[in-house]
Write a structure and sequence with these properties.
By secondary structure, this protein is mainly alpha-helical. It has four helices and no strands. The chain has one domain. α1 packs antiparallel against α2, α1 packs antiparallel against α4 and α3 packs antiparallel against α4. The mean pLDDT is about 90.
């Protein structure tokens, strides 16, 4: 997965959250999107985002689709 695909995936997660009127993670997803879209994001910021997603992943409540998409994002950020 590349950065463009990760941004598309995160945008899709945000859209699904909006459609389903879910509040969980909405602000987190939006802040993560800003970091991914910013060309000046440092390697350290991306590593921090990875750790935040891992923590969120461990404690959140997700649909199967959302779970799969977040897992893909974590794999992208890990590499």
């Amino acid at each position: 997965m590349n950065k463009t695909k990760a941004i598309e995936l995160l945008t899709d997660i945000i859209s699904c959250s909006d459609r389903e009127n879910k509040l969980q993670g909405k602000e987190f997803y939006k802040s993560a999107l800003k970091i991914l879209q910013d060309e000046r994001s440092s390697e350290n910021e991306l590593k921090t985002l990875y750790r935040r997603f891992c923590g969120y992943f461990a404690h959140g409540d997700f649909t199967n689709v959302e779970y799969a998409k977040i897992n893909l994002l974590i794999n992208y950020l890990e590499s």
